[in-house]
Amino acid sequence: xxxxxxxxxxxxxxxxxxxxxxxxxxxxxxxxxxxxxxxxxxxxxxxxxxxxxxxxxxxxxxxxxxxxxxxxxxxx
Length: 76
What we know:
The structure is a single chain. The chain has 76 residues and is of the alpha+beta class. The protein contains three helices and three strands. It has a domain at 28-68. 45% of the residues lie in helices and 12% in strands. The N and C termini lie far apart (41 Å).
């Protein structure tokens, strides 16, 4: 069963072991984030993975909203 967890981002236990992926693809969100972190051009990412520029904008938005609500605890 596919569940939308953010705009353009879904999870499905049958796809990539339930990792978040770009909707209607098998492209993991973390792959896109890694390419963005490595300064790959948006057009190159789109071409490499067969996704749209709008798809590429979804992972950073998802990451920002996730981090904004996540509590980080340190251990001493």
